């Protein structure tokens, strides 16, 4: 006798690297949105001409975090990660965007 959650996991699992079109579109949107936020934060440092060590270090951390996030998204889309990591990718996107908002507030000096 199987439970509903076990059945749902089997239904959502991509077969042989195949992903649903909804997953593909949502991860394209997520990765593009996250990349835009991080790049806007990086460019904002140059626009506000704040080149302190803290701002540079903060931007480097955001770029490295974006790199690991894009790597996880690529692995998920290729079918190398299980479907349960989808929620973690959504959570990471929210965290990166919130960190970018905080970094932009710090860099702009408000």
Care to describe what's here?
With 110 residues, the protein is mostly helical. The chain is elongated and about 50 Å long. The termini are far apart. Helices cover 77% and strands 0% of the residues. It has one domain. Helix 2 packs antiparallel against helix 3, helix 2 packs parallel to helix 4 and helix 3 runs antiparallel to helix 4.
Give a concise summary.
By secondary structure, the protein is mostly helical. It has helices at 4-12, 21-47, 53-77, 85-108.
Q: In sequence order, what are the helices and strands, one letter per element?
A: HHHH
Mean pLDDT: 81
Structural class: mainly alpha
Q: Helical proportion?
A: over 70%
- Estimate what percentage of residues fall within beta strands: under 5%
Distance between the termini: 58 Å
InterPro entries: DUF2678
Transmembrane segments: 25-48, 55-76, 88-107
Organism: Rotaria sordida
Protein name: Transmembrane protein
């Amino acid at each position: 006798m199987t439970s509903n959650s076990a059945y749902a996991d089997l239904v959502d699992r991509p077969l042989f690297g195949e992903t649903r079109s909804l997953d593909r579109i949502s991860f394209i949107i997520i990765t593009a949105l996250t990349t835009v936020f991080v790049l806007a934060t990086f460019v904002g440092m140059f626009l506000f001409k704040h080149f302190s060590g803290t701002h540079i270090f903060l931007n480097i951390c955001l770029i490295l975090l974006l790199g690991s996030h894009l790597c996880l998204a690529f692995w998920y889309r290729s079918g190398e990660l299980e479907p349960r990591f989808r929620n973690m990718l959504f959570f990471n996107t929210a965290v990166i965007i919130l960190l970018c908002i905080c970094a932009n507030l710090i860099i702009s000096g408000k």
